[in-house]
Amino acid sequence: MEVTDANIASTVKDGIVLLDFWAEWCGPCRVLTPIISEVESDNPDITVGKVNVDTNPSAAQAYGVRGIPLLVYLKNGEVVETSVGVMSKADIQAKINKLK
Q1: Which residues have a catalytic role annotated?
Q2: What is the pLDDT of residues 2-55, one digit of tens each?
Q3: What is the pLDDT averaged over residues 75-96?
Q4: How far apart, in whole angstroms, are the C-alpha atoms of residue 8 and residue 59?
Q5: Which residues form the domain of 61?
Q6: Does residue 14 belong to any structural domain of this protein?
Q7: Which residue among 11, 17, 20, 100 is least enclosed by CB atoms within 10 Å?
Q8: Number of separate domains in the chain
Q9: Helix (H, G, I), strand (E, B) or coil at 92
Q10: Position 18 in a domain
Q11: Considering Cα of 83, then 15, then 36, then 42, what sign does the dihedral take?
Q12: DSSP secondary-structure letter at 7?
């Protein structure tokens, strides 16, 4: 799901949400993309959103993005954890499982 400055507030308000802050020019972001897709397929009960930092600067600023890829894990609108850089599917899934 594409998350934008316009829809981020409604996207993150309920349930478990994983936000992937990325950019087209970011090599590590491209490495992480298929991993995020697998996590999304394996977890239909959560919302997985991708936020392009170049086209959504307000969202990036609101979440304090200083480096990408940045994964932000939220539960009912509250940031529970963040991680910067490429992570394995197993590590991402473990963080999601803690939130469930």
Answers
A1: 26, 29
A2: 999 999 999 999 999 999 999 999 999 999 999 999 999 999 999 999 999 999
A3: 97
A4: 7
A5: 8-99
A6: yes
A7: 100
A8: 1
A9: helix
A10: yes
A11: positive
A12: T
Q: Is 2 part of a structural domain of the chain? A: no
> Residue 83 gets which letter from DSSP?
E
Amino acid in the structure at residue 76: N
The tally of CA atoms less than 13 A away on the side-chain side of residue 92 is 27
Residue 71 pLDDT grade (very low, low, confident, very high; cuts 50, 70, 90): very high
Kindly state the tokens that stand for 45. Answer: 């009960």
Distance CA 26, CA 65 (A): 14
- Give the Cβ contact number of residue 65 at 10 Å: 22
Q: Is the dihedral of CA 44, 52, 58, 83 positive or negative?
A: positive
Residue 94, both tokens: 């473990």
Residue 1 counted as domain residue: no
